[in-house]
Amino acid sequence: MPPRTRGGYTSDAPRRRPTGSERRRRVHLREVDPVPDPDPVEHPQHDRDGTEEVFEGARGGPIDRSILRSFHKHVAAKIWLGEDRAPLKLVNHGAKLQLWELDMERSRIYETVYRSGLAPLTSCSHRVVSRPMLSTFCERWQPETTTFHMPFGEMTITLDDVAFILHIPVTGSMISFPQPLRVDDVNALLVELLGTTDVEASRETEQCRSPSVRLLWLRDHFSTITDASSDDDIMFATRAFLLHLVGCTLFANKSATSVAVVYLELFRDLSMVGSYAWGAACLAYLYRQLTTATRFEVRQLGGYLTLLQAWIYEHFPEMFSSPDMSYTESRPRALRWRPHVIPDSLQSVRERLDRLQISEVCWEPYVDHRAEHPLPDIAWYSGCLKCGQVVEPYHPERVLRQFGYIQTIPPRPFTPPRPDRSILLEQYWERWTDHVLTDQSRGQRCHYSGSGESVPEHMAWYDRISHRIVQPPQLRSGFTTDARSSLPSHAASTSDTRAARALTLLRLVISGGREQSVDVFWGALNEAHGILAGSDETSASHSTPSPAPASHSTPSPATLPFFSPATFVYPPAASDDPPPLIVPPPPASVAPPAASGPPPPLIVPPPPASVAPPAPAPDPSAPAPDSTASTTVYVRAKRKKKT
């Protein structure tokens, strides 16, 4: 029998188109057969009663997936499913910039750098960046909208932020490159614009294994050139310095050691360097780096992280910032802050952002300084930003509150065109004045400056299309009842186990950070005191802090927000060998406790001097005391008291 084909006909029979009834039958079968969803989104978990568990209005992914179409690949979706990611490795070259400084002996190079508009980058870079803070904000970045999705709405880094924080130009020609350079083109460019030999250029590109050069190679070959050198050497050194500068700041890549040679083409004509929109290119490059880091398998973040960190300091000053009181408005805004590494863990910062309120955000951090730095009109530009082959959308209509306007429901985000259509993008950018938001699109101004208002229907819409809470409720920190009941009981535990339980509880309080209330610390200390005393309840006669007033309920340790089931280490049971504890030596006046047995009794402090200690009961078998010696001791003690 001839074999049958996929359509059900034999191979010898002539092929014919299926009839209408056959097509309808196939459609019916497709509707009945279960087809897996290509974009699965985790739905809220159900408890044992069958009710839907909703955590502060957050669900495991957006309900309306028309906006965040790639959310199932997002790191936030993995975190919601219980798969965590370590803090990202951050690429920061703030310390390397100080290895090549322009002093009075290199004034000719500095004059060209100053005219280029990139001179502020030599001094405003942060040497320290916080991994937990930047990693947590990266988890809230959404590539489709190019905004951070916070619990109360969207926020992003605008061109106004770039101009104010870095003091670099945000208007000018769009930065475009030709097609990716080949190895021969890279070597020719190094020979022509940096004056190196072909052998040196080939050796450097082979060592980098990419069309790049090392930052160390640039410093070693050109940092020694001074004003006394020839004009050609100064011109080569100026191009090398600018390439080194943008490689350490605006276009820092994940190699952490090199910079792409293609940027050298921008410095061919040194008189035209200041005509580029460096701020717009920096923002597009940072957008792309944040988009790449939203994938769960990515472990590194590039771009100019000083811009991102300073933006966080500006808009969330009560949570992360440490201001520099010597700052003046004539300097870049990035120098207003003292960069520091926050001591909190990644989960702690993540939960702080989950609990963030709209009143804790500084929506307009520059409103008091508009006289010196007015809002640039290009900040209202709605279109695409370009940096070579990187094209990213820019949506100021999604963050109207950052400009002092009431937030409305924005239109759908547009998909950027392909990078190869650079001519159309450049023409669109050159006519940016025709693509700014009109007064009607901006809407009404907020009734109060910095209030962060929005229309009534905005929050309901935002809750449907966004993922507002990153940390899942079942993995949030908090001393839960189940975890507490699984600890060894007080009665069945030894003194070492009780000490281990108390230390574990205090360790949880310390890991919760300094943002916890005093009641939380008091509750934990009271619980630890009860563990060490050998009972769950603390006696009122013990020297414990007084509880909070009746109007403020003291939280139970069973609800303290610092327990992490994933990282909690239970103390060993009573039958196991307990771990060695490092106990400080007791004072000289206190005898050390026994190695085992019941816990030592409480040490009662000596009574005040005005109260005489009770006399011990006389021992009939003891010899009679010498009255003279007793009188002598008493007199000596009395004399010492007088002196």
Explained architecture:
The protein has helices spanning about 20-30, 75-80, 105-115, 130-140, 160-165, 185-195, 200-210, 215-220, 230-250, 280-295, 305-315, 345-355, 420-430, 440, 460-465, 480-485, 495-510, 520-535, 625-640; strands at about 90, 140, 145-150, 155, 210-215, 260, 300, 385, 390-395. The protein is mainly α and about 650 residues long. The strands form four sheets. Strands 2-3-4 form a three-stranded antiparallel beta sheet, with no helix packed on it. A two-stranded parallel ribbon has the order 1-7. A two-stranded antiparallel ribbon has the order 5-6. A hairpin with a 4-residue loop joins strand 2 and strand 3. Helix 3 (about 105-115) crosses helix 9 and helix 8 (about 215-220) packs antiparallel against helix 9 (about 230-250). The longest helix is centred in the middle third of the chain and has 18 residues, at about 230-250. It starts with 19 loop residues before the first helix and ends with a helix.
